[in-house]
Specification:
Strand content: 25-35%
Radius of gyration: 20 Å
Structural class: alpha+beta
Number of helices: 10
Shape: globular
Helix content: 25-40%
Number of strands: 14
Largest sheet: 8 strands, mixed
Distance between the termini: 39 Å
Length: 280
């Protein structure tokens, strides 16, 4: 019996720390657990430098793809809504999978805020599902819903490279007409806390909410979730799932399609790095 099948049978809930820092694998494991395991589940994970889009966003207005390609920064798209975020090893991601009937976002926010309060960080929740400390944002949150379950996941900037974050996010040179969800920009800050201290305090608060703790340190075999990784790292998912949009060129509005881009000058299209991946 595979370890995941075994865990599914014996655990009432799980706390999992992912050790691999590959963004596609981590998002895939998160989705695999969301699809196949009963809640509640808490997951901690980190990734090497990358940019992660919300499900309904446009990469050409959310991030600087040219800089990302030059610096070998991966682009990913998650299954939840919300805005675009920069990940690196200084950012701690937490994911909570809970039953839709008992889920309450304020309960989860309180769990995070109480954990940080125990580390002498008095943070606040503000609009757009963000957490702030000393007037600056350090955490964003997004959600996905599937059958009777909710995925609530968020970022925690602990020791992230903020210069790179600002370098790769947002592209003010692109003029696009779209109904895609746009990110809300805010000044950000690091909390400058040790990762282990933060995860330990969150686990304590989680155990209060859910009464017990089973900590499972598991490495997931690529074969188990290969179909998830193949899909979530594909051009079809990352680029082709971009909501419909139009380019504004010399006063003309041109809807982006495989046929229409043939009639747009290569000089103008050069601003839209990797746009061909929408149609390949």
């Amino acid at each position: 019996m595979h370890q995941l099948e075994f865990l599914k049978k014996i655990l009432d809930f799980m706390i999992i720390e992912l050790k691999n820092k590959n963004i596609y694998e981590n998002l895939s494991i998160e989705e695999f657990l969301f699809d196949n395991f009963e809640p509640p589940i808490l997951i901690f994970w980190r990734s090497t430098p990358c940019v992660v889009l919300g499900k309904n966003q446009n990469p050409w207005i959310e991030c600087n793809l040219k800089e990302m390609i030059d610096d070998d920064i991966k682009l990913a798209r998650r299954i939840s809504g919300g805005g675009t975020v920069y990940h690196d090893e200084g950012n701690l991601n937490y994911s909570i999978i809970e039953d839709n009937k008992t889920y309450n976002s304020n309960k989860i926010y309180k769990m995070i805020l109480d954990a940080l309060k125990n580390l002498n960080i008095r943070a606040q929740i503000k609009s757009q599902n963000s957490l702030f400390y000393n007037g600056k944002k350090f955490s964003g949150t997004a959600f996905a819903y599937k059958r009777n379950k909710v995925l609530h996941h968020g970022t925690l900037l602990l020791d992230s490279d903020l210069k790179k974050l600002n370098k790769y996010l947002n592209n003010t040179d692109i003029k696009i007409k779209t109904k895609a969800v746009k990110s809300n920009s805010a000044e950000v800050t690091n909390l400058n806390l040790p990762f282990k201290s933060v995860t330990n305090e969150i686990i304590k608060q989680y155990s209060i909410l859910f009464n017990d703790v089973n900590l499972e340190k598991n490495e997931f075999d690529d074969k188990t979730i290969k179909k998830y990784i193949d899909l979530r790292s594909s051009k079809k998912w990352i680029y082709a799932k971009t909501p419909k949009f139009s380019i504004l060129n010399k006063g003309r509005e041109i809807e982006v399609s495989k046929e229409n881009i043939k009639n747009i000058s290569s000089e103008f299209l050069s601003k839209f790095v990797n746009i061909e991946k929408m149609f390949s």
